[in-house]
Each structure stands twice: as structure tokens, then as C-alpha cells.
TrEMBL record:
It comes from Streptomyces dangxiongensis. Residues 111-123 have a biased composition (Low complexity). NCBIfam families: PRK01371.1-1, PRK01371.1-4. This is Sec-independent protein translocase protein TatB. PANTHER family: SEC-INDEPENDENT PROTEIN TRANSLOCASE PROTEIN TATA, CHLOROPLASTIC.
Length: 149
């Protein structure tokens, strides 16, 4: 309940409560707060029980925590019936990146596959995306047009 409250914050709350309510009324206020919290918990538990009873036996495994989207997704991703792990393992990201790089550089598939496999084997299976592609025409630069800029 007090997961985010440290000892300094707790002492500050106690000092403020004593200053606001006074030492005479503080025990009564604490009793009222605990009684209210207890009633809220009882109300929520009875509401959960009523909802489970109304849903029927086909929803006996229903947990209210499943209504949280993060919890629901985590359960569904761990579910083996969907085959998501097979789909996830079916992608070869290195091969896809090499194909995209080759397409951007304008190389054909056969020569790029050989060059990417040789470069991938020499670099430990990694593609160096920091290297600039080599221009096929050599070191020719386009003519600078000062009026165009």
C-alpha cells in the first residue's frame, strides 16, 4: 500500500496530521480512516463476487487484473496456441537488412547475396551501416550550380 512512500515522507505526513488535527483528535481520525478503507475493500470484494456470480461458470477463470491492457497482452504473448513465437523466429533480420541495403544501393540480388555473405562473414555477421556506398561511376561529382542554391 505504501510502496512509493519512504520514511521521510511518512514522518512528514505524521507531523502534518498532528499539526492539522491536533493530538487530541488524531486517534479518532485514524480510526475513521481505517474504518472507511475497510468498508471500501469489503464493497469492492462483494462487487467482484457479484460480477463473478453473474458471469456464470464459463468465466470462472476470469481475473479482474486481466482488464489491464499490459497484463492481457503479456498473457496473450506467452500463449503457445497463437504461434507467435514461430512467427517471431521466422524472420531473419540480418537477411532483410542486407536486401534493403542492396536495393537502396542498386545492386542486384545474386551479386549482393555473395558480397553480403562475404562481408557478413568477415565482420562477424554484422552489416556496417556507417560506410558510405561506393559510387559506380568513380569519384565524379556533379557540377556545382551557384544559382540553383
Amino acid at each position: 500500500m505504501f510502496n512509493g512512500i519512504g520514511p521521510l515522507e511518512l514522518v512528514t505526513i505524521i507531523v502534518l496530521a498532528v499539526l492539522v488535527f491536533g493530538p487530541d483528535k488524531l486517534p479518532k481520525v485514524i480510526q475513521d480512516v481505517t474504518r472507511t478503507i475497510r468498508k471500501i475493500r469489503e464493497f469492492s470484494e462483494s462487487a467482484k463476487h457479484d460480477i463473478r456470480q453473474e458471469l456464470g461458470p464459463e468465466f470462472k477463470d476470469f481475473e479482474f487484473e486481466d482488464l489491464n491492457p499490459k497484463t492481457y497482452l503479456r498473457k496473450q504473448l506467452d500463449n503457445e496456441d497463437l504461434g507467435l513465437k514461430e512467427i517471431r523466429n521466422g524472420f531473419d533480420l540480418k537477411k532483410e537488412m542486407a536486401e534493403v541495403t542492396d536495393a537502396v544501393n542498386g545492386r542486384d540480388g545474386e551479386s549482393s547475396a555473395a558480397s553480403s555473405s562475404s562481408s557478413a562473414s568477415s565482420s562477424g555477421g554484422r552489416i556496417d551501416m556507417t560506410k558510405k556506398p561506393e559510387a559506380p561511376g568513380g569519384d565524379e561529382r556533379p557540377v556545382f550550380d551557384a544559382d540553383a542554391t
